[in-house]
Write a structure and sequence with these properties.
The chain is an alpha+beta fold. It has three domains: 22-86, no CATH class; 97-146 and 361-366, no CATH class; 147-341, no CATH class. The protein is built from nine helices and 16 strands. It has helices spanning 2-9, 25-28, 43-53, 70-86, 132-140, 160-168, 249-264, 276-281, 310-326; strands spanning 97-103, 106-112, 117-119, 123-125, 146-147, 150-159, 185-187, 193-200, 204-207, 217-220, 229-238, 271-275, 299-301, 336-341, 348-349, 364-366. Strand 12 (271-275), helix 8 and strand 13 form a beta-alpha-beta unit. 39% of the residues are buried. The protein binds flavin-adenine dinucleotide. Residues 18-21, 24-26, 28-32, 96-97, 126-128, 131, 134, 198, 206, 208, 218, 220, 368-369 line the site of flavin-adenine dinucleotide.
């Protein structure tokens, strides 16, 4: 209800949104279940097996690029909750960890927003990449945190039929093939790398902020992947060298561009958007062309280059025509850019030792993002 509140009615809830709530960002993620990380102990297999037990289609155990689709995930997360409860687990809704008690480098427990203290020498910390208040609290309590690279950019939307045509040629539209995907990379003359990320065939661009007065984009699709547009994030690598030397500076960096995007969007949770042709020509967009943007609650056509750093804009302007050489039409005039994509991965890292505990806080097990 709260996630759709923003998507449909511009009603934003800071405590319950696409990033926070039951299942976290995972609930409203697209559910593309493939990754380029090394997995020598095949833990990913365990995840896939648990997903099938919770209601995911069996095919995720054998297809090349398994995908679940957002709305199936919502029910799966509810099934997982039922399983956890049947095994004796307790889930506290509308309640968050506000403080952590550490004595002599050992976790003693956590304090909840209700005021309750839960004593424990073992705390698994799986707060995702957007729990900025929790990152700050952990930093203030002395937990070792360091900044890490991530990427920022825009979402791009094209007609799915155009992507299908380029990828499948005469077989485009064949139901056996479904909607085509792509993966693109370009190393730019300014030293940056531009790449496509979280490509969603037949999907939609979604509002993914977790703070009021910010605009953040992401992408998702249903299992059927049959919406009219293909979308992906076109992002540029950012390193801790791009902002002041402090563990949480990456969060401030994200906030700066998200706030600018909110203002450029008109201050009502519309996202700033621009046609690719206008973006490449350096002029504001005033009218949509053939591609109808899918982002809700809406978009505001403008000069989107104002809401990301110059080196990011320069890199994307160089990369799009290069991508067009690989997928004819990728830099078509009417394709839509919507911004800003800032939550590609966490801007911080809470390092673990061999026993999976924080480097300087025994009993704290950082996990997930
Ligand atoms: C629209 C969208 C599409 C995506 N598509 C994909 C995809 O196709 N494939 C993919 O692999 N990834 C995708 N992702 C990213 C993926 O969702 C995340 O990488 C993943 O959810 C991270 O899991 P996590 O458990 O680390 O954190 P999260 O899923 O973010 O969960 C963190 C949880 O911690 C809770 N929390 C935070 N702070 C506190 C606190 N102080 N006290 C108590 N609870 C707290 C939050 O409410 C939340 O429930 C997508 C994300 C979005 C938003």
């Amino acid at each position: 209800v709260d996630t759709f509140g923003l998507w449909r009615k511009r009603q934003f809830n800071q405590e319950s949104n696409v990033q926070f709530g039951e299942g976290g960002a995972g609930t409203f993620s697209d559910g593309k279940l493939y990754s380029q990380i090394k997995d020598p102990q095949f833990r990913g297999r365990k995840v896939l097996t648990e997903f099938v037990k919770s209601g995911a289609p069996d095919e995720i155990l054998y297809v090349n690029k398994p995908h679940i689709g957002t709305f199936r995930l919502v029910t799966m997360v509810e099934n997982m909750r039922a399983e956890i409860e049947s095994l004796g687990g307790i889930i506290r809704f509308q309640c968050k960890v506000e403080d952590i008690n550490i004595e002599n480098g050992q976790v003693q427990g956590v304090t909840l927003s209700s005021g309750e203290f839960i004593a424990s020498n073992h705390v698994v910390l799986a707060v995702g990449h957007s729990a900025r208040d929790t990152f700050k609290m952990l930093f203030e309590r002395g937990v070792y945190i360091e900044s890490k690279p991530f990427s920022i950019g825009f979402r791009i939307e094209h007609p799915q039929s155009m992507i299908d045509q380029c990828r499948f040629g005469p077989q485009s539209g064949n139901p056996l093939l479904g909607a085509a995907d792509y993966k693109l990379v370009h190393h730019c003359s300014n030293g940056r790398t531009v790449y496509s990320f979280c490509m969603c065939p037949g999907g939609t661009v979604v509002a993914a902020t977790s703070e009021p007065g910010h605009v953040v984009t992401n992408g998702m699709s249903q299992y059927s992947r049959n919406e009219r547009n293909a979308n992906s994030a076109i992002v540029v690598d950012i390193s801790p060298d791009d902002y002041p030397d402090s563990p949480l500076a990456g969060v401030d960096f994200q906030r700066k561009w998200e706030k600018l995007a909110f203002e450029l969007g008109g201050g009502n949770y519309n996202a700033p958007a621009q046609l690719v042709g206008d973006f490449l020509a350096g002029k504001p967009s005033v009218q949509l062309g053939s591609v109808i943007p899918s982002y809700t609650p809406g978009i505001n056509l403008c000069d989107i280059s104002q809401c990301l750093p110059d080196y990011v804009i320069t890199a994307i302007r160089e990369a799009l025509p290069e991508f067009d050489k690989l997928i004819k039409g990728f830099a078509m005039n009417d394709a839509i850019l919507t911004g800003v994509e800032t939550r590609t991965s966490s801007p911080i890292r809470i390092k673990r030792n061999d026993s999976l505990q924080s480097l300087n806080t025994a009993g704290l097990y950082p996990a997930g993002e």
